[in-house]
Write a structure and sequence with these properties.
Blueprint lengths: L2 H17 L6 H21 L3 H17 L6 H8 L2 H9 L37 E10 L9 E5 L19 E5 L5 E7 L4 E2 L5 H8 L5 E2 L2 E7 L6 E7 L18 E2 L2 E3 L16 E5 L2 E3 L5
Parallel strand pairs: 1-11, 1-12, 8-9
Antiparallel strand pairs: 1-4, 2-3, 2-7, 5-6, 7-8, 10-11
The structure holds benzoic acid and fe (iii) ion (FE).
Length: about 290
């Protein structure tokens, strides 16, 4: 490239950066100027042709068209770029033994049903019963009583209740930890499922040889006054998708042993599962101090 060409391109970048110089809000100014520098650096490295740039605009247009109050393609785009996970990582700074965070995902809903300790969140969702137990403590090791523990997951067909388009509530609920911080409930052994991939993000994954599948997981959100709200999942040790989760949500510390139990083994609470096999998993949750 000639010096003349390089100078023209650099001068254009500088002009656009300077156009944001009098943005009154200093944070917005920083964001816009940095975005301009990075966007121009990307363009000047990749050097898209006019038709490639049109294709990129058409992709974003399609993402806009498929987005509505139930489907958010731009969040999916952020997810598959690892941008959601990077934002989670930056905003939940490592704090000693505190349990690590991961992405919220699109399927949390406020107002899940309350479940008594030892109760069942499945409400008819299909899958192998799984006994989940653990404790909630702070990083000091002190038990956290009355922590609100929200849990939600897909059924073994790979769908969350909200994806069925009827009004069912299933495979979600919340329990509260006991005075000694302990909790327990029945859920389902998580199974893999794809992120929605019938739109532009799915086409992008297909074109780049990537799978839309998420590693099997059970979602948690743990809320307790005086502690940072924890949004996380637990994953299934041995799941072959752990290394290639489509949204980069897996952290080694969140991979747990879901231990299979033969049908003859008595359940911890004496529940009769009608001769079915079941599993159990332990998740000890450590909350970072701070927050509301
Ligand atoms: C989920 O875990 O439910 C999820 C996360 C990111 C994108 C799609 C689904
Ligand atoms: Fe999920």
């Amino acid at each position: 490239m000639s010096d003349e060409q390089r100078n023209r391109e650099a001068a254009l970048t500088d002009r656009v950066v300077a156009s944001f110089a009098s943005t009154p809000d200093p944070r917005l100014r920083e964001v816009m100027q940095s975005l301009t520098r990075h966007l121009h650096a990307f363009l000047r490295e990749v050097r898209p042709t006019g038709s490639e740039w049109q294709e990129a605009i058409a992709f974003l247009t399609d993402a806009g068209h498929i987005t509505d109050e139930r489907r958010q393609e731009f969040i999916l785009l952020s997810d598959v770029f690892g941008a959601s996970m990077q934002t989670v990582t930056m905003n939940n700074e490592a704090d000693g033994a505190a349990t690590e965070s991961t992405v919220l995902g699109p399927f949390f809903i406020d107002g899940s049903p309350p479940i008594p300790l030892g109760g069942d969140i499945s409400f008819g969702a299909t899958g192998q019963p799984c006994w989940v137990e653990g404790t909630v403590t702070g990083t000091s090791g002190k038990p956290v009583p009355d922590a609100r523990i929200e849990v939600w997951e897909a059924d073994d067909d790979g769908f969350y209740d909200v994806q069925y388009g009827d009004d069912r509530t299933a495979a979600r609920g919340h329990v509260f930890s006991e005075p000694d911080g302990s909790f327990r409930f029945w859920a389902l052994v998580p199974t893999p499922y794809p992120i929605p991939h019938d739109g532009p993000v799915g086409r992008l994954l297909a074109a780049t040889g990537r799978s839309p599948l998420r590693a099997s997981h059970l979602h948690f959100m743990v809320i307790a006054p005086g502690f940072r709200t924890l949004v996380t999942h637990i994953f299934v040790r041995g799941d072959e998708l752990l290394e290639r989760d489509s949204v980069f949500g897996v952290r080694e510390s969140l991979v747990k042993d879901f231990v299979a139990q033969a049908a003859e083994i008595p359940t911890p609470d004496g529940r009769d599962l009608g001769g079915r096999e079941w599993s159990r998993v332990r998740f000890d949750i450590v909350l970072a101090e701070g927050g509301a």
